[in-house]
Write a structure and sequence with these properties.
single chain, about 110 residues, mainly alpha, 4 helices, about 35% helix
Amino acid sequence: RLENGRDYYITIRGKYGRSCFGMSLDDLVMYNDPIRSVPLDPIKRVEKYGSDQTAVLCVPKELWRIVDAIYEKGLHERELFSISGYIEEVQRIRECLDTGEAFGNFR
């Protein structure tokens, strides 16, 4: 708003893509499917998964997948947690965790 001026309104559109990043572990253990396929609408979510709010998994699948990938491909990587990763690879890993796609190969 401009001081002592008129208001201007703009229209903004976007498409929200749910991500496992920022979600609680309690929420992540509720669904066996990738988080992007879980409906945002609570009514559609109940239709797809039922109203029973019992955890389906003991450990979030996203955490399981990333630990498994580190175990298989990264145990012998020097300074694995000491230096930042390549931003493109980090974004790809996040996308794979959200969609359930395979990680593939990295540098």
